[in-house]
Amino acid sequence: MGTWGYKALESDEGLDVVGFLQDFINQHNESKQLLLRNSIQAMKNQGFFGETFEDIDFFYDMSAMALAEFYIHYLNTGLFYGKDSNDPNIHMTADKSSLTFILRYLKDIKDDVPDQHGSRELVELWSESQSWPEWQANLANLIERMEQEISHLAAMEKWK
To answer: What is this structure's pTM?
Structure first.
């Protein structure tokens, strides 16, 4: 695990996610609206996530956290992580199922849902780190933000 901070985007695995997403965005920018669910599906197809939530792996967990951080960065700044500017006509949108998918990963990490060996490698590594409190706080913030976005979408659907 090559990291230089406690966030997923401050790691080699997180930058793998960023690189993949930047390529994905570049390949699909003609539509002008990038759907988070399409990004997730492409990531699944490329091995960033398991077949099911029972397929627990360090890389899958890091991918989920990095994707959450990437999306939240976009929501907060209007920019895709790693870029100083975006085509202002390209927008990323999410639906409830996409956010729920990410949230499920994040909550499973927080709850330390064990893998077949009895522990979740990502949690085990960070719990032994001096940055454990910051990492936990970051995870809690990601969960809270995903829940807020899901609530926001639900409220918007109610008013349609």
So the answer is: 0.93
d(CA 123, CA 65): 12
Each residue's pLDDT expressed in tens, for the chain with a length of 160 residues: 578 899 999 999 999 999 999 899 888 877 778 899 999 999 999 999 999 999 899 999 999 999 999 999 999 988 888 765 566 667 889 999 999 999 999 999 999 998 877 789 999 999 999 999 999 999 999 999 999 999 999 888 777 6
Please name which of 140, 133, 116, 139 lies closest in space to residue 56, comparing C-alpha atoms: 116
Q: Got the DSSP string for 8-49?
A: GGGBHHHHHHHHHHHHHHHHTGGGSEEEHHHHHHHHHHTTSS
In angstroms, the CA 48 to CA 85 distance is 26
